[in-house]
């Protein structure tokens, strides 16, 4: 979990990637090992992901955070956790309700300026959009904008990842156009397989 909290972007992104892979592997590994992992680390993982994504100093990885959080909600919603997540939960079929209450308490504690109705809508959105990553990401971003505006923090970095992808696509398109017109690129800029 320490990698997720790291301020160096590459380390944080690597930690997110490893966590994504690990969560996918637990869905297909030995059921007993998976259930033990969920019982011990599921809530802690969710809490850490929310803490990191809500922290203003972390500006990258919104897509990866969204994918991980959505996956965590899918796991509990689909009943893949067959053990109670906490001592208060008697029946594993109540895990989803417990996770929603856990998240509500977590958000109330971390963001006391949020109203109960806002928290309810935020959590319902996470559960409803957990299989639509783009929708989940937008919902998460809306939530982050709400909390950052209330605390007076800048929200521009929440769109940084999307801007970077747009610029990368634009640069690739520009490069394709330049390669299609003879003489625009220097010969050393043209890949060898494109030279006569």
Automatic annotation (TrEMBL):
SUPFAM superfamilies noted in UniProt: ARM repeat (SSF48371)
UniProt GO BP: protein export from nucleus; ribosomal large subunit export from nucleus; ribosomal small subunit export from nucleus
GO cellular component: cytoplasm; nucleus
Subcellular location: Nucleus
GO-annotated molecular function: nuclear export signal receptor activity
Main location: nucleus
Listed Pfam families: CRM1_C
Protein family: Belongs to the exportin family.
Protein name listed in UniProt: Exportin-1 C-terminal domain-containing protein
């Amino acid at each position: 979990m320490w990698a997720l909290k790291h301020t160096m972007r590459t380390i944080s992104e690597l930690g997110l990637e490893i966590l994504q892979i690990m969560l996918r592997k637990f869905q297909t590994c030995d059921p007993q090992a998976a259930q033990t992992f969920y019982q011990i680390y599921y809530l802690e993982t969710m809490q850490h992901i929310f803490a990191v994504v809500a922290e203003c100093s972390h500006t990258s990885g919104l897509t990866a955070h969204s994918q991980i959080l959505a996956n965590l909600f899918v796991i509990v919603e689909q009943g893949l956790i067959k053990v109670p997540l906490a001592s208060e939960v008697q029946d594993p079929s109540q895990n989803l309700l417990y996770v929603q209450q856990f998240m509500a308490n977590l958000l109330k504690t971390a963001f006391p300026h949020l109203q109960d109705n806002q928290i309810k809508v935020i959590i319902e959105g996470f559960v409803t959009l957990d299989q639509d990553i783009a929708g989940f990401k937008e919902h998460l971003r809306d939530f982050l904008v709400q909390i950052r505006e209330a605390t007076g923090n800048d929200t521009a970095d929440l769109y940084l990842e999307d801007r970077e992808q747009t610029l990368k696509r634009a640069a690739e398109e520009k490069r394709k156009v330049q390669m299609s017109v003879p003489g625009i690129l220097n010969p050393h800029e043209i890949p060898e397989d494109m030279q006569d």
